[in-house]
Hints:
Distance between the termini: 92 Å
Low-confidence stretches: 148-153, 213-219, 228-233, 336-341
Strand order of the largest sheet: 1-2
Radius of gyration: 29 Å
Number of domains: 2
Amino acid sequence: MGKNQASKLKSLVSDVILDAIGRKDYSGFLHTGAIALQCSIDDPTMIATNAETFAKSNEIDHYESHDLWELAAQTHRQTGNKNDRDRCLNEAAETHVAIADANDGRGMIAASSIMDAIKALQQLPDTQQRRHELKEKLIYAQSSVREEMGVISTQFDITEYVEYAQKNVSGITLAQALRRFADLVQSPDPNELHDEARRIAEQNPILSMLPSTHVDEDGNVIAKSPGSLADAEDSDLALRHLIVRNENLRRHIDVQGLIEPARQIIQSEHSIDRCDLRPIVEMTPFVPADRVDLVTTGLTRFFGGDFFSALHILVPQLEHSLRHILKLAGVEPSAIKSDMTQQSRTLSVMLDKERKSLEKILGTAIVFEIEILYDFRGGPALRHELAHGLITDAQCNGSDSIYACWFIYRLCCLPLFPHWHHIDQRLEAP
């Protein structure tokens, strides 16, 4: 572009800005002012002055006001005026509070807005007292989050699933039934899950662009989905959250249509007790010798329908079992601290530091499912929920918990599939 053309373009931008100011076109000024500031077209002081004036107007909403205060702060930053920059950023943070107040200071929108305000103020000096006040408002807003969460239900006909599961494990020996029960469901291929999530995002672009917030029973925000697949920085996390939504539904169908009907048939026909499951737990390399009684008890409770006990016994043992199989493969799942003591790696750290080793042992599909089900904070995160006493009565009997117990049973059985005749022999022995 020649100098003459560049000069004309700058003049045009200046004229558009002046026209927007004259017509009080707040949106037009905001977008054109940002261009002018970025390209050094107009006087930053003029842009800042008008941005602040517009931001105070009663004719615009709080969201537009926020963006105008941000524009003003950007101009002051460019001119090196730190005090005015911080003042405008403080005003921008307060627009989040205004949004919360406009929603009566209660519910998810209010809670999310107050959190945004606190996050913005953390970057500014002398805001500790204000942040303390906002944390009190946040607690009040969170207290009513669950009240506004409606239930969206969808009906599925799982009759064929149930009939298949019952037929698959009924009328055969206990050893055969236990083998088939362990192989009712396979872990989905992560690549296929990613492809499916992208396909759904393409078919429902508006839904996939909306950020989502995950809250616990007390209304505390525990995870956020960016809701954008276009931004390279956020796309992987946004895609992971879409996969979690799909997997939540898939697990529910698998539990209600396959796992639970089959478990009930096996229990009714064979009345499972500890001696029936102990051979599996003793023989599997997934369980170390000093945990055989513990895991056997957990699995017996699971087959008996005592999901409360089964969940609390089995899920904490998953982490140790993963450390155990890493050791069997020659990988040391511990870290040496600065004082030369060793600390066993947690599930999250193993999934990060030892992921390739785990995938070589278990396969990518199983490792991915372990992460989504037990660790990822946007999902059930059962390891974290149990470790910190956050799980509720209803969750213990929910599909995710039942699936989690069954999944650990499957992990115990998988290495034994080629040698299942030994299980047959031990269960058939008098």
